[in-house]
Amino acid sequence: MSVQYEEVRAAPPHERRRTPRFRFGIMMPAVLGRGDALILDISTEGARVMHFVGHALDSDARLVFFYAGRRFSVTARVLAGRVIGLGNGPGGSTSYQSRLRFVDCPADSVETLDYIIEHIESERQRTWVSNTSGEESRDHAESFGDARYFMRCRLHGQRWNTCWTRDAAQPGDGFTVPAKLSDGEVEILCQAYAKMDAEGRDLIRASATMAAT
Predict the structure, then answer these.
(1) What would the CATH number be for the domain defined by 13-113?
(2) Plot region of 149 (φ>0 → left; ψ -120 to 50 → alpha; else → beta)
(3) Which of 59, 60, 65, 55 has the alpha carbon at shortest distance from 95?
(4) Domain layout of the chain by residue ranges
(5) What is the pTM (predicted TM-score) of this model?
């Protein structure tokens, strides 16, 4: 199958985003078709994803991800895409970024997505409040979205060590992300990092660096 990503196709007016999109704190591990993917943002109409198996324009694939015990699964159509890296994906695979439109998003999938987004937002707020109490508590509400604090996660053998820091530097044995991420988002990133090879881990650190700036 020939996959061409040199040009990004503009969506017709009726296909352009009509609902608000939710941007994950950094990225959400998922499966697109038969390959791994990372969701950058999502709405009930579509998503923007990074993936490591090529998909032809106008082709359909199943997009699936899990969070907080819920499974979100829809059929998605590739509207536009481009190659963003050669050999920097898991196992040296090519990295793509594509914009998807959901061909079907039934009521139960919409309900699941709403639940996941609400769960992440409430976790972010709870995590931030609990960890900033006693330090800059006076203005933590105003600074909630700012990356003034970070969470550093380092993998030692099979064990993760995490700590809060003001230093956004990326460690060689883990990653550093904005502190506004929920505990669940951090846990999912840890699980994905542990399964990836060196190049895949570098990709997570690169994405974390962009999220922290």
Answers:
(1) 2.40.10.220
(2) beta
(3) 55
(4) 13-113, 117-133+146-212
(5) 0.63
